[in-house]
Design a protein that fits this description.
single chain, two-stranded antiparallel ribbon, two-stranded antiparallel sheet, 4 strands
Length: 259
């Protein structure tokens, strides 16, 4: 009988590292697909940003922009807010994959990641002045009959934009989860290269999210590192998942990784 997980040896290094528990192989596959989906959901709105005019940052003009580019704005909003769903699955899968290295730290990193994505989903907002409430205000502005009504709606939009682009605790917790989990990756099958990238991404992310209202375009550095980390983590999770039992066919009993 083969154990569910066994030490692995990094090629060319001769150093034994804890192997992932293959009884969780299906979770790894789900997490791997989620990591790649995260990247796709980042690339789609970025494509729209390049194809469509950049949205204004002031309330009145932004409400007019939403009315004129409603489909583009909604797609960007859904993608950026929806990132929390695949990210949550990735954090859970990575925490389980790393439990053989240090259960306590893996659980802490996983909990930070899950908490961050739940907060992000509850708030329903994201950077780049994207918020579902602005769509409602845009509709109300289009139906307004007086300049006073439109001015009031523009002021409400300005307040919502300021809250959306303020310091994000969800974003800080996401970066902290990446930092904590990546600190364990150097002693696992994820490898030292991905560990170093993750520690760098997490550290830059914490600073970027904390100083987001002040750093302006410099935030894009973290915006580039984040999907890269998810892509590489997703690829590694898929590789780990392929070594485990396959998906059970309809009507057949699940197989045990120990058999």
């Amino acid at each position: 009988m083969m154990p569910a997980s066994a030490p692995d040896s990094r090629p060319g290094q001769g150093v034994a590292v804890p192997g992932a528990d293959l009884s969780w192989a299906r979770l790894y596959r789900v997490g791997g697909v989620a990591g790649l989906l995260f990247v796709v959901m980042v690339l789609i709105p970025l494509g729209f940003v390049l194809a469509a005019p950049l949205p204004p940052v002031e309330g009145g003009p932004l409400l007019a922009y939403i009315a004129a580019h409603r489909v583009v704005y909604l797609i960007e909003l859904i993608c950026f807010v929806g990132l929390s769903v695949p990210a949550l699955l990735v954090f859970v899968a990575v925490a389980v994959a790393l439990k053989g290295v240090d259960k306590s730290i893996a659980v802490i990193g996983g909990l930070l990641g899950v908490a961050s994505e739940i907060i992000a989903l509850a708030l329903g907002s994201s950077p780049q002045s994207l918020h579902g409430g602005l769509v409602v205000l845009s509709d109300a502005s289009g139906a307004a009959h007086t300049d006073a009504e439109r001015a009031g709606l523009a002021a409400a939009a300005d307040a919502l934009i300021a809250a959306t682009n303020a310091v994000s605790w969800a974003g800080i917790l996401t970066a902290a989860a990446i930092l904590v989990l990546s600190a364990l990756m150097g002693r696992s099958e994820f490898g030292r290269g991905l560990a170093m990238l993750g520690v760098l991404t997490g550290a830059i992310g914490i600073l970027s999210e904390t100083l987001r209202p002040m750093i302006g375009p410099a935030y894009m550095l973290y915006g580039l590192l984040l999907p890269l980390w998810f892509a590489l983590v997703g690829r590694t999770l898929l590789r780990q998942g392929r070594r485990g039992p396959p998906w059970p066919r309809s009507g057949s009993a699940p197989t045990s990784p120990a058999q």
